[in-house]
Write a structure and sequence with these properties.
9 strands, 49% helix
């Protein structure tokens, strides 16, 4: 049976590819974007199976209305994809207060508002799948991306708790953690803080590392997501791309090593060690 999707950030990148993958196989999609004009080609190509919605995910009442409109229009809601988000580039010292707040409003609170709007509907029908688009930067941290990392770590934290809270209602949760892909995340969609000369060397080093990474194909990610939402027992977390697993394996190995090396201190802090 066909599924009904609600996808934020559908105008470009992953969101566009997720929408096309779902529509190509006959599913219905409520495609949400800040600028509804960017969705015109989807409506032309797929007709009534597309519900274009103008949405700024930072507007909580608007997010609630959009989710409810999707349910009313299609009569059900099966998959919610919180994809809207952007990259904020800058060292911690360089990030302005407004930039930090805007990043969290979109990447974290936007996903929270949509999730909260969908949960009553999914609980009532006893099924559904919430997909949170995080990043390898949601389980690791990179210089010049600290506040972006913070937004994705927070998204992962509430989503992990959410999965435990809603399992008995028949609702599934999956956190997607992509590596580098050929989207405009680091281009037109990104925000760059005012740069301090003190960090020029760091930026050059980061750029050198990034230039050596092969970017993934966003259209292939759309096909991969279909397999996840169709799985009887989908994963709580899934990497997209070949970069994240070796990178994260190394980082977690080092974390465990450090925790073990300092375990005596941990016991002393609790007052249980001599």
């Amino acid at each position: 049976m066909s599924k009904t999707w609600f996808i934020t950030g559908s105008s470009r990148g992953f969101g566009r590819e997720f929408a096309k993958a779902a529509l190509d196989r006959g599913d219905n999609v409520a495609a949400a974007a800040r600028n509804i004009d960017t969705l015109a080609d989807l409506v032309t190509a797929y007709g009534e199976r597309v519900l274009p919605l103008t949405l700024d995910v930072t507007d909580k009442p608007a997010a609630t209305r959009a989710v409810q409109q999707t349910h009313e229009h299609f009569g059900k809601l099966d998959v919610v994809v919180n994809n809207a988000g952007y990259g904020l580039f800058g060292a911690i010292e360089e990030i302005s207060e407004q930039q930090a707040r805007d990043q969290l409003e979109t990447n974290l609170f936007g996903a929270l508002w949509v999730t909260q709007a969908a949960l009553p509907l999914l609980r009532e029908q006893g099924s559904g799948h919430i997909v949170q688009i995080s990043s390898v930067g949601g389980v690791t941290a990179f210089p010049n991306l600290g506040i972006y990392n913070a937004s994705k770590w927070a998204l992962e934290g509430f989503s992990d708790a959410l999965a435990q809270e809603v399992a008995d209602f028949g609702i599934k949760v999956t956190i997607i953690e992509p590596g580098g892909f050929a989207t405009d995340w680091a281009g037109a969609s990104g925000v760059v803080a005012d740069q301090l000369p003190a960090y020029d060397g760091l930026r050059a080093a980061v750029a050198a590392v990034m230039s050596g990474m092969e970017a993934g194909d966003p259209s292939a990610a759309g096909t991969a997501l279909l397999k996840i939402v169709d799985a009887e027992n989908p994963p709580l977390r899934a990497f997209f791309g070949t970069q994240p697993l070796p990178m994260t394996s190394h980082i977690y190995t080092e974390r465990l090593k450090t925790w073990e090396e300092w375990s005596d201190l941990a016991a002393q802090a609790q007052g249980t060690a001599g």
